[in-house]
Amino acid sequence: MNDVNDSFGTDAPVYVISVAAELAGMHPQTLRQYDRLGIVSPGRASGRGRRYSMRDVQTLRQVQRLSQEEGVNLAGIKRILELEHEVEQLREQVFHLANELEAARRAVARRGRPARPEGGTGGVRGELVRRTRVTIFNTAEPGSAEEPRDGRPGADGSGTDVPGQGGPAKGGPGRGGPGRTEDEQG
Where in the chain are the domains? Predict the structure, then answer.
């Protein structure tokens, strides 16, 4: 039996219902009932006949144990199996996420960036840092001696507006920028 299992894998649907029932120690009608209830759903052959895998047979044995030894009803058994399946999927997801995290840490290390020490105030070791560029716009009142509203210094480098030299002249187009009061905009 293990030779067949090894050559096909535990999920290969190879056993007809009579063989699966014998391997699980159950009656074939019980397997049909479990299939209808969605407790153990085997694969299907081209002629729609049920084909059970070794994993299905192991699940049938677990169902029998939960029912006979633990006294769990079929609805409870179905929920237990669903939760076990969910836990298996979550473990697989955690495994893949851990691999991705490790790959990201290796990529950061290859770039030559030192990882932050553990226990330090800098955060988690190997933490990726996102850098953001911030642009600050001048909100000075028009006519002040500060940089013009467009943020560029004048042509003479003094930071004042010179008509035709990188910014609007006083009173020209472009009035009404940030930093003006309601009275000035009127």
Answer: 2-72
